[in-house]
Amino acid sequence: MANTIIYWFRQDLRVQDLPGLLAAAATGKPLVACFILDDETPGEHRPGAASRWWLHHSLLSLQDELRGLGGELLLRRGSAPQVLEELVGACDADAIHCSRQYEPWAGALEQQLHSTLASRQIDFKRYPGSLLFEPGQVMTQAEAPFKIFTPFWRQCLRSSEPRRPQPPPVDINWHPTPPRGESLLDWGLLPRDPDWASQWPPLWSPGSTGAAERLATFLAGPVADYSEGRNHPARGATSRLSAHLHFGEISPRAVWHAARGLAHADPDRKEQVDKFLSELGWREFSHHLMYHFPHIVEQPFKEPFQAFPWLGNETALRAWQRGLTGYPIVDAGMRELWHTGYMHNRVRMVVASFLTKHLLTHWRTGARWFHDTLVDADLANNSCGWQWVAGSGADASPYFRIFNPVTQGEKFDAQGDYVRRWVPELAELPDRYLHKPWEAPADVLARAGVALGDDYPAPIVEHKAAREAALAAYGSIKG
DNA sequence: TTTTGAGTTGTTCGA
DNA sequence: GTCGAACAACTCAAA
After folding, report:
1. What CATH homologous superfamily does A4-129 map to?
2. CB proximity A407–strand B (7 Å threshold)
3. CATH topology of domain A131-162+208-292
4. Residue A468 approaches strand B within 7 Å at CB
5. Is the pTM value of this prediction over 0.85?
6. What residues of A act catalytically?
7. Which residue in A171, A206, A230, A294 has a CA-CA distance of 20 to 30 Å to A437?
8. Using one digit for the tens of pLDDT, what is the confidence trace for A401-444?
9. A303-476 — its CATH code?
């Protein structure tokens, strides 16, 4: 029998628009499809708890899809190089295909595999597929990486349009007797004792079908008011595609072309669609930055921030994590995160600003918490987002831009729907005091059934004083 | 090489 | 209540 080809699924859990799988199928060699749960190679960047829940369901979905194509998904756990080595031996493979990833650890892994496999005449091929534009393809005139979003995205839009998505392969020559795999349930990706994700199934549909439905729903409605609507966390005007994109259940090219198609059919929507696409642009920008400047996942992009006088206040950190800071919009966001594995983007900025500026806590502390609790945890987006808020990132927010949690709440949750949903102990407060309960007169609090400091905490820091302390801290690292 | 214009998402203060 | 300016200077990207 001919040599086997292995398709190694990674963060590309789909069969649509997957160049590596198409190429693997086109070889006509007996194909084995596998997914490896590798918690060793990524180190602390291994999937967090919420991501593992998503991954479990996404793999179930991929198993279904592959069965639909007449095949199956082989599951193995362990260090990727070891597992691949073993599989190559077990099924006499002479080729491994996969999609590229851009995390520093993943790049190093791909290099290592490339050299060890090449020395054994095994064809290791990586394909693009997770981004619209490959890093290295979008550069300044001086052939340098972009460090500012606007010119970066302009350049992306000037270059040739991302290719149209491709259909799944037909007639895959599946290996008749693939090696035995492990059972997904044995991996323990789902939480137990307690099962904190028991309420999640109605919220999320991991997998390609769920991703396509989410996109269709978004384009059929919310995108029409995207520029404004996306700022209001209670309106549900964002696409919520982040986790689907992270796991590669839908390709960004498919999203791009669906959105462009809508704008083409209805020119009134163009401006809103373009705004949405520019958010995909930020996803691109973060990945390109991480590729060109791998240190951004750990170190400040702007060197002077090495000397930033971060504090480490465990009590305050715990209050932030639990949604007990006394600032309703912050607490609502942190509780949405805890209860759903997700937080609206506007609120992510508010809570991140609060942690880094009001509490002077290192952005990496916040990034770690997000990594563990977000279903869409993504190293590039998470690192760049936190650095942007902290002021240490590329094209970052100026240091004197310190979100006022009261103003943000009043501006973007004026009717208080978001806060009332996630901080129900304040639900009876009138709008006027909802975002600043400490200013409510005693009788108003009493009527709303709120005993401040008892039912709901008093603010753990005072805004004005915290703001001044943050400005002083930032002032201390200025050249 | 030098110059020029510009840079996601805000807040505060004072007129 | 509304509006414009200050907040700070620096680096980037392109002409």
Report:
1. HUPs (3.40.50.620)
2. yes
3. 1.25.40
4. no
5. yes
6. 279, 282, 310, 345, 363, 386
7. A230
8. 899 999 999 999 999 999 999 999 999 999 999 999 999 999 99
9. 1.10.579.10
